[in-house]
Each structure stands twice: as structure tokens, then as C-alpha cells.
Structure prediction request, 75 residues.
Amino acid sequence: METAQTQLKAWVQREGRKLSWLAQQVPVGSSHLSRWMQGHVVPREIYRVRLAEITGLNIAGDAEWRAGLNEGKDQ
Prediction:
């Protein structure tokens, strides 16, 4: 299963967007989005649903985010 973090990174790159733009659309602070993207924490459901609405990705579920927890830890 491709993690939510990986899917979001690919979407941002493909769409030519910046993470700061995505954070504003959610809306959350850039630091919150960064922690989600680095796999430090799983966003609450309301934010997962909002990210899925914005991107059209299947990332609203908890499992997609938990699969990427601490994925970026050793990078």
C-alpha cells in the first residue's frame, strides 16, 4: 500500500503546488503539515478528509497515514 505521505508528495509535485499552499487550503499551519508529511503524527480525521477533498486522493483513512508513520525518520 502506498502511504498517504507518499501519495501527497507525488500529488504536490505533479500539480506544481507548494506545501505551504496546501496547508493554507486545509487550513493548518505549515508546521502541522510538515509533521504529517514526515510521518511524525497522523492528522485528525477532519484534516484527512479535507486533504482527500483537495487532492482527490484516497487518503482520508487512518491506515494510509499509519503506514507512513516515521517513514521519514531515517532520511
Remarks:
- The helical segments are 4-15, 19-25, 30-37, 45-55, 62-66.
- The CA atoms of residues 31 and 73 lie 16 Å apart.
- The chain has a mean pLDDT of 92.
